[in-house]
């Protein structure tokens, strides 16, 4: 096989998380929970002599994608179309990495397993400092709970058995690497409290409540994001912040009811998949 | 919450398997691999004072569903519509069990996690003798490889990262309990050989090749099923037997090309989901 192949990877907003460092990138990662989204990224891989990468028509360098292609020893043109902005807490870099791995495996006839491809994409994200838990959540779909960090050989996943309409508004970018490169103790402590709440009661309400509290306790809330969450609460809805981006997400019609003009999608019940 | 809720569970044909007994039903189960199917079962649960269960409009008793309702301490009317025949190797009893667990959790506001619900449905199947690996595969979707047996707390899953059109023809029923109740050494030996082949090369071709060889080596092939597989091979296609049913499944247009008039579906990329 040497045709092109396309994979779709759902977006993923993390509601809360902890940071687990490890020298082995397949063990490093994060605990936490989030929502896999029907808005996502479509990645097409075509074997070629020289590597090129395009996102929404523009040439781009994405370190974890380079690392995935290195790990697969693959030269290819990677063309991605994203319904979601980069750097705003939607797991776009994770989606690019995982989509490249899945599509390259098929386009180049590499015969790797799903876990192997997820492991490669997860490790590439961790080593690039661009994400810790998006890839494994995007591979699962739904409303994943990351009980233990790492790639598929080491982690432990569960999920909230629910679906929801999801609205979101993005005010700008946050640099994942800068936030995760700093002091993470307050994040870890708040993340562990949030996780034990959701484990005790794995429902959407408890997820969004725990996420909102985490954002405040971990001191990650910007003014604009805090205001929007407050607006949604006052309108009787449920919202929190997408980690890590200047993005507010709400369940149901939370942002609309509060007078915002949000993008609308839903939880994506499946994980990443070949087209 | 006390409204009704509906879940869809994909069908699942197992290509090959091993039998792992254990006193703890969450550890018992099987290794193996199969295809989750877009043809499946829709299960609606409505809270009620007395338990009733209907499949395609007819009253029916399904032991694992009873066990699921017992485990959830739930009284409800369970109404299921199946695109697939019972007792023919499509995991319909697993689908009924898992669909009941997911829908009851929502209808009755039980706040259990996905893993907890899958564990209950898996355990109910094992204790009823109606299945060993369908439930965990149906919860994952795609082309699941069961590397280690048991429910989500104990097993280890991987998958073939691929999608396919799937055709099938059913000649009749096989009694899972009768087959699994007998001598399983030849099954286990053949199943382990098939699994190591698919682990070495996790592709659809290798899955179907390993499945066909397993069916022969484990001596589970009936004459009619063997003939149909042979017909597909002679027409240049790939088919094997659904474990455990008098059912032949083929990739692509295998059965059509061999002159059969099959049902047509595809691999279902998502696992079981609420509607």
TrEMBL record, chains A, B:
<protein>
    <recommendedName>
        <fullName>Pantoate kinase</fullName>
        <ecNumber>2.7.1.169</ecNumber>
    </recommendedName>
</protein>
<dbReference type="GO" id="GO:0005524">
    <property type="term" value="F:ATP binding"/>
</dbReference>
<keyword id="KW-0173">Coenzyme A biosynthesis</keyword>
<dbReference type="GO" id="GO:0016301">
    <property type="term" value="F:kinase activity"/>
</dbReference>
<keyword id="KW-0067">ATP-binding</keyword>
<keyword id="KW-0808">Transferase</keyword>
<comment type="function">
    <text>Phosphorylates (R)-pantoate to form (R)-4-phosphopantoate in the CoA biosynthesis pathway.</text>
</comment>
<dbReference type="InterPro" id="IPR020568">
    <property type="entry name" value="Ribosomal_Su5_D2-typ_SF"/>
</dbReference>
<comment type="pathway">
    <text>Cofactor biosynthesis; coenzyme A biosynthesis.</text>
</comment>
<keyword id="KW-0418">Kinase</keyword>
<dbReference type="Pfam" id="PF00288">
    <property type="entry name" value="GHMP_kinases_N"/>
</dbReference>
<dbReference type="InterPro" id="IPR006204">
    <property type="entry name" value="GHMP_kinase_N_dom"/>
</dbReference>
<feature type="domain" description="GHMP kinase N-terminal">
    <location>
        <begin position="75"/>
        <end position="142"/>
    </location>
</feature>
<dbReference type="GO" id="GO:0015937">
    <property type="term" value="P:coenzyme A biosynthetic process"/>
</dbReference>
<dbReference type="InterPro" id="IPR014721">
    <property type="entry name" value="Ribsml_uS5_D2-typ_fold_subgr"/>
</dbReference>
<comment type="similarity">
    <text>Belongs to the GHMP kinase family. PoK subfamily.</text>
</comment>
<dbReference type="InterPro" id="IPR012043">
    <property type="entry name" value="PoK"/>
</dbReference>
<keyword id="KW-0547">Nucleotide-binding</keyword>
């Amino acid at each position: 096989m040497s045709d092109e192949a396309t994979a779709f990877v759902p977006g993923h907003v993390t509601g809360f998380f902890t940071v687990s460092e490890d020298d082995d990138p397949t063990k490093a990662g994060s605990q936490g929970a989030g929502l896999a989204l029907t808005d996502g990224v479509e990645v097409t891989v075509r074997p070629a002599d020289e590597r090129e990468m395009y996102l929404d028509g523009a040439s781009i360098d994405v370190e974890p994608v380079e690392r995935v292609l290195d790990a697969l020893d693959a030269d290819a043109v990677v063309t991605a179309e994203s319904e979601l902005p980069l750097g705003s807490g939607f797991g776009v870099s994770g989606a690019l990495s995982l989509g490249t791995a899945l599509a390259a495996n098929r386009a180049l006839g590499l015969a790797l397993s799903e876990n192997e491809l997820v492991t490669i994409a997860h490790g590439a994200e961790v080593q690039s400092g661009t994400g810790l838990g998006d890839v494994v959540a995007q591979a699962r779909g739904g409303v994943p709970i990351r009980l233990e960090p790492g790639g598929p050989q080491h982690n432990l996943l569960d999920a909230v058995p629910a679906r929801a309409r999801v609205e979101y508004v993005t005010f700008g970018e946050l640099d994942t690497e800068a936030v995760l490169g700093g002091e993470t103790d307050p994040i870890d402590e708040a993340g562990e409290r949030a996780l034990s709440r959701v484990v005790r009661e794995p429902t959407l309400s408890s997820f969004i409540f725990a996420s909102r509290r985490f954002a405040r306790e971990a001191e990650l809330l910007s003014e604009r994001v805090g205001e929007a969450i407050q607006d949604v609460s006052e309108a009787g809805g449920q919202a929190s912040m997408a980690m890590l981006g200047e993005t507010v997400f709400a369940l149901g019609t939370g942002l609309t009811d509060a007078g915002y003009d949000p993008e609308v999608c839903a939880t994506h019940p499946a994980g990443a998949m070949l087209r």
